[in-house]
Write a structure and sequence with these properties.
The complex is a heterodimer of chains A (about 450) and B (about 230). Chain A folds into 3 domains: about 140 residues; about 100 residues, Helix Hairpins; about 160 residues, Heat Shock Protein 90 (2-Layer Sandwich). Chain A is rod-shaped. In chain A, the strands form 3 sheets. In chain A, strands 2-1-5-4-3 form a 5-stranded antiparallel beta sheet. Chain A has a 5-stranded mixed beta sheet with strand order 7-9-10-12-11. With about 450 residues, chain A is of the alpha+beta class. In chain A, helix 1 runs antiparallel to helix 3 and helix 7 packs antiparallel against helix 8. In chain B, strands 2-1-3-4-5 form a 5-stranded parallel beta sheet, with helices on both faces. In chain B, helix 2 packs parallel to helix 3, helix 6 packs across helix 7 and helix 6 crosses helix 8. Classes of the chains: A alpha+beta (about 450), B alpha/beta (about 230). Chains A and B meet through helix 4 and helix 5 of A and helix 1 of B.
């Protein structure tokens, strides 16, 4: 029953039946009224002619003798003796009132008209049934053409429906031919107005899908390409280890291989972090987080690396700076910011990390005394795998891409500036958690702060 | 043999340099396109191993910008410099390979690769470049096989150190051609390697001891050669 064609066909047939019924009923009623008037007139005329002239008028003989019309003339003496009946009938009506009357005789109802002369009563009668049958016949005749063309109409509707639905079928075939490789828009030319919005909506969806797929493909292609360098290095380091001619060379090769594995592992981890924070990735639960605590953890985690470079990580936080966010994502953001600051500053640098309030917002700031980033490059550094220079640092080129991606997801504003002492200042401004303002302690499952400022860098 | 390695990745560069030195090559390593360009313009190398994805680096302001290794290669060929170049890159698309070879590369090797294959390709490219069909160098009963790094004299194996081998290979590549002390030092040492004083004389002396006193000739004040030196009267 979900086929439009079948539904159209059934609806048409139902409407035809209804129309036939209506036409039949109306015809029946009007024809019945007409025949009643006509036959009543004839009953009366026959009776009056018989009374006045003692015989039936010539123009009425045909009517009287027509068995279909079943007129019966009865004559009684005044004392009620039946002396004449024009036609034999199992049940003739009894003598009725003068004038018109409906008389029941047996199972039949007769319409009678009686007149009285001095010595006899003349009654002309006709079964009412006749009139109904005539009306019914007339009604049937009026409906007949409608019924006759019903199959034609049905065929027509079937064909028209097929024609009208052909564009839909073309669209369906077009969609079916599309696979994940071909997301070209469907043609909208020659489509009926009813189908065009559907196709336009489909095309818009295909376009969004294509854009999303393209960005995914680009990501995967970039990732595959970037994974090649660490793998090439690993392969070379392993071969070098196998060829090491002496103990010292072997020890150096083992160290190099260890560093290579660490770097490959770090790249994979960073790729995963970025993939999780990309738009379209499944969103983790937002909760109320103490930003100061998360950043302190990040500083603590980076401390060994800073120490190995002879650098100092200074950390300062106002207590209770709370934001709404995804714990692992904000943690990754903080770790990347702190790690970048240490990595791209000269050995023995002092890196300042602070968390504090900035009006209604919560601010995370990292200042490093490194080379900084020229204003012209400040947009590009957020591109994944973009590395500004070939220092001796084995950066993955993903740190700032992760920071930006997480900031965008949290509606945080991300800016790059010159640090007061030269070098780079990264500032992130989060909308403060609602519970922060009301000074409530904790709350989980709160709604994300989605309406805050977009990143402007 | 002196190779220039152009590679921006620190780990790959370090490993490759170590591996190539183990093969007895003198290796210089630069990490960006500008450095590669200026080095190639000022020094002579037997072969270049060129990565394509390179940072531009800080070149002279007047020079045309070099965006990647392909630009370096084109600039090299535009100077009519025929130094053999093997491209080592992660770009594995057919289009990239075609573009690399058409830009003037002698060979194209996709990362990650096996050191054995790289070494074989280096030997093949050098052999082709010198116009030799034989895979070994032979002169006066001495046969040098660059692939196995073995030297024989009248069929008897001769044991040589890596430096001795480098000197002998340089001399045997073009019998009769004179190589100066500085040229031989270039073949033996990469940048940053400490050159032992008198090194060339020492190695020549060792080689003469192992291969016969008259195998390597000395043209005073000019250099060394194997076979008949044009400057020396017979």
């Amino acid at each position: 029953m979900s086929s439009i064609r079948v539904r159209l066909l059934l609806s048409l047939l139902a409407m035809l039946a209804l129309a036939a019924g209506l036409i039949g009923a109306v015809t029946y009623r009007s024809v019945l009224a007409e025949t009643e008037a006509l036959f009543d007139y004839q009953l009366r005329q026959m009776a009056l002619t018989l009374r006045d002239q003692g015989e039936i008028a010539p123009d009425q003989v045909g009517t009287l003798t027509d068995e279909q019309l079943d007129f019966v003339v009865q004559i009684w003496t005044v004392d009620g003796r039946s002396i004449y009946a024009s036609r034999r009938h199992p049940n003739l009506p009894a003598r009725a009132l003068l004038g018109f009357a409906d008389v029941k005789a047996g199972s039949q109802v007769w319409r009678t008209f009686s007149v009285a002369t001095r010595d006899r009563v003349i009654q002309v009668a006709q079964p009412l049934q006749i009139r109904a049958r005539l009306a019914a016949n007339a009604a049937l005749r009026s409906v007949a053409p409608l019924l006759a063309i019903a199959p034609l109409l049905a065929l027509g509707v079937w064909w028209l429906a097929a024609r009208a639905l052909a564009p839909l079928q073309r669209v369906a075939a077009g969609v079916q031919q599309r696979d994940e490789q071909s997301l070209a828009p469907l043609p909208t030319g020659g489509l009926p107005d009813e189908v065009e919005p559907l196709v336009r909506a489909l095309n818009a969806l295909l376009q969004r899908l294509g854009a999303s797929l393209d960005s995914q493909r680009a990501f995967v292609a970039d990732a595959a390409h970037e994974l090649r360098s660490p793998l090439t290095a690993l392969k070379l380091q392993l071969q070098l280890l196998r060829r090491a001619p002496d103990e010292a060379a072997r020890a150096a090769a083992v160290d190099a291989l260890g560093a290579g594995i660490e770097r490959a592992a770090r790249l994979v981890e960073q790729l995963l972090t970025l993939a999780r924070s990309e738009p379209g990735a499944a969103r983790g639960a937002f909760e109320t987080l103490d930003l100061g605590e998360l950043v302190r953890d990040a500083v603590a985690a980076t401390q060994p690396y800073a120490v190995s470079r002879g650098s100092v990580l200074a950390y300062d936080a106002e207590p209770g700076c709370r934001v709404e966010g995804e714990r692992s994502a904000i943690g990754a953001l903080a770790r990347n910011l702190v790690d970048n600051a240490v990595r791209y500053s000269p050995a023995g640098s002092r890196i300042e990390v602070s968390v504090g309030r900035d009006g209604e917002r919560v601010r995370l700031r990292v200042d490093d005394p490194g080379p900084g980033i020229p204003a012209a490059d400040r947009e590009r550094v957020f591109d994944r795998f973009y590395r500004r220079s070939t220092g001796d640092e084995d950066g993955t080129g993903l740190g700032l891409a992760i920071v930006r991606s997480v900031a965008d997801r949290h509606g945080a504003e991300l800016t790059l500036d010159d640090a007061p002492g030269g070098g780079l200042r990264v500032t992130l401004r989060f909308a403060a958690s609602p519970s922060e303002r009301s000074m409530a302690t904790t709350g989980t499952g709160a709604t994300p702060a989605a309406s805050a400022a977009t990143s402007t860098t | 043999m002196r190779l220039l390695l152009v590679e921006d990745d620190r780990m790959i560069g370090e490993s490759l340099r170590s591996a190539l030195r183990l093969e007895g090559y003198a290796v210089d390593w630069v990490r960006d396109a500008s450095a590669a360009h200026t080095t190639l313009a000022s020094e002579r190398f037997d072969l270049v191993l060129l990565d394509l994805g390179l940072p531009p680096g800080a070149g002279p302001a007047s020079a045309p910008p070099l965006r990647d290794g392909l630009d370096v290669l084109r600039a090299l060929r535009a100077r009519r410099d025929a130094t053999p170049v093997i491209v080592l890159t992660a770009r594995d698309a057919r289009g990239d390979k075609v573009a690399g070879l058409d830009a003037g590369a002698d060979d194209y090797l996709v990362k990650p690769f096996e050191l054995d294959e790289l070494n074989a390709r280096i030997r093949a490219v050098v052999r082709r470049h010198s116009g030799r069909a034989e895979t070994t160098l032979a002169h006066g009963g001495v046969v040098l096989d660059p692939a196995t790094r073995q030297v024989t004299r009248h069929g008897e194996p001769v044991l040589l150190s890596a430096r001795e081998f480098a000197v002998l290979e340089a001399l045997m590549a073009r019998p009769g051609a004179l190589l100066s002390r500085a040229q031989l030092e270039d073949r033996m040492y990469g940048w940053g390697e400490e050159i032992e004083s008198n090194a060339v004389s020492v190695y020549i002396h060792q080689l003469r001891k192992k291969l016969g006193a008259d195998f390597i000739r000395n043209v005073r004040g000019v250099g060394y050669c194997v076979g008949a030196a044009p400057a020396e009267p017979a």
